[in-house]
TrEMBL record:
It comes from Echinicola soli. InterPro entries: 6-hairpin_glycosidase_sf, 6hp_glycosidase-like_sf, Alpha_rhamnosid, Bac_rhamnosid6H, Bac_rhamnosid_C, Bac_rhamnosid_N, Ig-like_fold, Rhamnosid_concanavalin. This is alpha-L-rhamnosidase. Residues 805-889 form the Alpha-L-rhamnosidase C-terminal domain. One of its GO terms (molecular function) is alpha-L-rhamnosidase activity. Residues 347-446 form the Alpha-L-rhamnosidase concanavalin-like domain. Keywords: Hydrolase, Signal. Residues 1-24 form the signal peptide. Residues 451-795 form the Alpha-L-rhamnosidase six-hairpin glycosidase domain. It holds the Pfam family Bac_rhamnosid_C. Residues 168-337 form the Bacterial alpha-L-rhamnosidase N-terminal domain.
Length: 925
């Protein structure tokens, strides 16, 4: 009785006096090491750990954490390898391991618990692990082995094998593999890992990746056989134009090392050496652009197993290709993803049998087929049909995109190993005829990045546009960000990558993908600081230093810092950023950069522009000066974050001089630019090149230009990404929306109305009359113009990351949507009311959790807005109010009475509120 009387007042206090206090316990989930789940092959000596928190209720946050690391899966009753102790901190992402020195191939298990805002401790998380890669060069015991026979001119793929014996029970085993060329590796008949196009594409002489695999379950006591098949790939295959080969070398070679730990604690290392054997494979030829020819009569898996007679195979020789350039794989590997069935089989007017997969995709077609021994099945690949409905490949230029399969006489399964195609349609040729549509499947390949963003609206064409943007990203994020996946190019064009980066980071977690590629940007950067047009650089040192392309060196690292909250990318790339700015400064005279080659506003709209894109009307040196200033500003920002005050001061002075030179050279006293194009005004405004007092009148001129072209854009690669952002910033939200919703050429939705399933390289790749643009450069899967996705997420849905120190990486979320009723004054709202949006629903998975921003028109004059803010973050939300916040309620409660919400500011049109984690539903009159 006394206990009851004592507890009741305390309960009453909790219920009535602490209504905003969360009583729900936090839990820890989604553990990442170096931004990956249970990664294998980590080279960092202080790998960074990240976790996501979950909990019900509002205003939940972490006040402290504790990390434990163990060499075993057990944590209780064992000596721990490292304990952080209780650390008072709200940080939950990119926490560096600070324990004892790690060992090569060491496997470490870790778990974490946290204390919430009230000091309540969570349960321990489920354990996760990481395994190190090679931490010292002398850990390599395997030797490089090229093929041991004289290769024919067709350079078929090579098979290599070796059998060894284990006499003791195995505790664990790890394989470390790389190659000159592409490889598939096998153990006892089974593939090692499920990665494709390994070891990936890097600047091979400077950075050649190796992969690490746990093969404990594949080993057996007694006889074991290691095998590998090597193809030419990027290393020595046909790249770029004029049938050029051997960019990085001319010899295929394998480096494979297996480290076996036995139950008794002893270690044995098996590696490539002179005891291996080699032989030509059933892959008679293999080229990335041209496809593969596979002879099923030679295809067998017997050579991958013990007891196979390899007496007629050739030996191998040892080569000293070295280990200094070998690096761990930072990014997610390419894997098989979706499998797509053909939707129909077509007989074209010309009589071809063509499979239609309904989606422009990147990967290959597999087939299961029976037929006469020696008969062949040929598959050719295309993105589109011409206006008569015939198979169209002219835009592929020299790329054949052709796979040929020679039948064994039994039931055969065929799929290429070292090539891929970009296609929607596949033409069936050859003399094999015993097949049906069900025998074919399209396998989609792309780097195995997690999807993070979802975006949908009440408009079906916009939803298809979002679909096209995502599939353009999938098809071109194949280990590096390529420009296109089908013709004889498929290169890492820097300009395409930088304009699309922010859109890419909404759709997928591209943190590791770009961190890896940016290392190659730095590796291939010239000694004078110029950045090549493509990375890896296969165009030579003369192809470097173009404004808007080379600025990838500054733009992507800074945006990665903002969106992923990680200073490591700035530390990694800072010298590269600085070298690029110094190059521009050295090339300039009186702070004016008006020298060198520049692509300019590539592939801008002009009615007669069926050329190669070099006819852009915006002054290319005006563009160069804008990017000179922008990169300098980003370098200043990075210097501030990294604590480099001398650089910050030096480049701040330079920035002022650059902008002064711009005004003197390219602007009249009244603020008119010498180039009157949309792109000129967009770049000058977005990069703050004009005096503040003249910016609005410049924005007005931009708006007039858009109206002059009947509410259409005229921008190219460099102007398009910023166009709608600039219009929104300067009070023309309605005009930005009008541009987005246009359905006639040139516009984002025009290709959608023509049946596009990916983003086109040109605004009118296929013209309204069904004819095509210049086939010399007319890809139908080219993601650059998909950069509008950034505006759709940031403006229509309103999901933004704070750019303030301590708030980046979505530690603080800024939600500032554009609403239906904000589009009132321009063409689309006056003439096409049915095209106004009544709903936008978007979400974004961050390292802290999932952000949701969902607004919709409900009753007449009323809107609902539902948001979700992850645990351990806060948000600033901009709500439309008319003239008073009294028009807003949250979950039925007037905003001024909502205890979990703080009103920060109210003006004529907007109420700004701040709040903590949780789900909130606002109704707005």
């Amino acid at each position: 009785m006394l206990k009851t009387m004592f507890l009741c007042p305390f309960l009453i206090f909790l219920v009535f006096f602490m209504p905003s206090m969360s009583l729900a316990q936090l839990t820890v989930a989604n553990l990442w090491c170096e931004n990956r789940s249970n990664p294998v092959g980590i080279e960092d000596l202080h790998p960074r750990l990240t976790w996501t928190l979950a909990g019900e209720g509002r205003n939940q946050s972490q006040s402290a954490y504790e990390i434990q690391v163990s060499k075993t899966k057990e944590f209780s009753g064992v000596k721990l390898f490292w304990e952080s102790g209780k650390i008072t901190s709200q940080e939950s992402i990119h926490i560096p391991y600070q324990g004892p020195a790690l060992r090569t191939l060491g496997k470490y298990h870790w778990r974490v618990r946290v204390w919430d805002e009230n000091g309540t401790v969570s349960p321990w998380s489920q354990p996760a692990f990481w395994q190190n890669g090679i931490l010292e060069d002398d850990a390599w015991k395997a030797q490089w082995i090229p093929v041991g026979y004289e290769e024919p001119s067709s350079r078929p793929a090579a098979n290599m094998r070796h059998t060894f014996s284990l006499s003791k029970p195995v505790k664990s085993a790890t394989a470390i593999i790389t190659s000159q060329g592409l490889y598939h590796a096998f153990l006892n008949g089974s593939k090692i890992g499920n990665d494709y196009l390994t070891p990936g594409w890097t600047s091979y002489q400077k950075r050649l990746q190796y992969q690490v695999y746990d093969i404990s379950e594949q080993l057996q006591e007694g006889e074991n056989t290691l095998g590998a098949t090597l193809g030419s790939g990027w290393f020595r295959g046909n790249l770029v134009w004029q049938s050029r080969n051997d960019f990085f070398g001319n010899e295929l070679a394998l480096l494979l090392q297996v480290v076996v730990e036995f139950e008794d604690g002893t270690i044995e290392i098996i590696g490539t050496d002179e005891n291996w054997k080699s032989k030509e494979s059933a892959i008679l030829s293999s080229e990335i652009y041209h496809g593969e020819t596979v002879d099923g009569r030679k295809q067998s898996s017997d050579w991958l197993k013990p007891n196979y007679d390899d007496s007629n195979w050739d030996g191998v020789e040892i080569r000293d290709f070295g280990y200094d350039h070998l690096v761990a794989t930072d990014n997610e590997p390419v894997k098989k993803q979706e499998v797509i069935q053909p939707i129909k089989i077509i007989t074209t007017p010309e009589g071809d049998k063509v499979l239609d997969f309904g989606q422009n995709l990147v990967g290959f077609v597999t087939v299961d087929i029976s037929g006469n021994r020696g008969d062949s099945l040929i598959l050719e690949h295309a993105e589109v049909l011409d206006r008569e409905g015939n198979f169209y490949t002219t835009n592929l230029r020299a790329a054949k995109q052709r796979n040929k399969y020679i039948l064994s006489g039994n039931r055969d399964h065929f799929e290429p190993q070292f090539t891929w195609q970009g296609f929607r349609y596949a033409r069936i040729g050859g003399n094999a005829t015993a097949y049906s549509m069900d025998d074919f499947k399209a396998v989609v390949l792309y780097s195995d990045m997690h999807q993070t963003g979802e975006f949908s609206t009440s408009d079906t064409l916009l939803n298809q546009l979002q679909h096209n943007i995502q599939w353009g990203q999938k098809g071109n994020f194949l280990d590096i960000p390529t420009d296109c996946p089908q013709r004889d190019e498929r290169l890492g064009w820097t300009g395409d990558a930088q304009v699309f980066f922010r859109t890419a980071a909404y759709n997928m977690n591209v943190n590791n993908f770009f961190a890896k590629w940016m290392k190659d940007v730095a590796a291939d950067q010239l000694d004078n600081g110029a950045v090549p047009h493509v990375i890896p650089n296969v165009l030579g040192e003369s192809a470097a230093g173009s404004a808007g392309w080379a600025d990838v060196a500054t733009i992507i690292p800074w945006d990665m810092y903002l969106l992923y909250g990680d200073t490591k990318i700035l530390e990694q790339q800072y010298e590269s950023m600085k070298a690029w700015v110094d190059f521009m400064n050295a090339e300039s005279k009186n702070n004016l950069w008006n020298t060198g080659f520049h692509f300019g506003d590539w592939l801008f709209y002009r009615p007669d522009d069926d050329t190669d894109g070099r006819s852009a009307i915006t002054d290319k040196y005006l563009i160069a000066q804008c990017f000179f200033a922008h990169s300098t500003q980003l370098l200043i920002n990075a210097a501030e974050v990294l604590g480099k005050p001398d650089d910050q001061q030096q480049y701040s002075q330079l920035l002022g001089d650059i902008k002064a030179a711009f005004v003197k050279e390219y602007m009249t006293p009244n603020g008119r630019l010498v180039s009157g194009s949309q792109t000129a005004y967009v770049l000058a405004l977005h990069f703050d090149m004009l005096p503040a007092s003249l910016r609005q009148q410049a924005a007005d001129r931009l708006a007039d230009n858009v109206r002059k072209y009947d509410y259409h854009l005229t921008t190219g690669f460099l102007g398009t990404p910023y166009l709608c952002h600039v219009l929104s910033r300067f009070g023309y939200k309605d005009l930005a929306f009008t541009l987005l919703m246009q359905q006639t050429y040139p516009s984002w939705l025009y290709p959608v109305t023509q049946g596009a399933t990916t983003i086109w390289e040109r605004w009118d790749g296929q013209k309204p009359d069904g004819t095509f643009q210049n086939p010399g450069m007319n890809s139908f899967n080219h993601y650059a113009y998909g950069a509008i996705g950034d505006w759709m997420y940031r403006e229509l849905a309103g999901i933004n990351a704070s750019e303030k120190p301590g708030e980046v990486g979505y530690k603080k979320v800024i939600l500032k949507p554009h609403w239906y009723f904000e589009y009132q004054s321009e063409k689309i709202s006056k003439q096409n009311n049915d095209k106004l949006l009544s709903e936008v629903n978007a979400s974004l998975k961050t390292y802290y959790g999932t952000i949701v921003s969902h607004w919709q028109k409900a009753l007449q004059g009323q809107y609902t807005y539902t948001v979700n803010i992850p645990v351990n973050t806060s948000a600033e939300i901009h709500l439309p109010t008319g003239h008073s916040e009294k028009n807003i309620k949250e979950n039925g409660t007037p905003l001024s009475e909502a205890k979990d919400i703080k009103i920060v500011e109210t003006n004529k049109n907007t109420t700004v509120v701040s709040l903590g984690s949780g789900t909130y539903t606002f109704t707005i009159e």
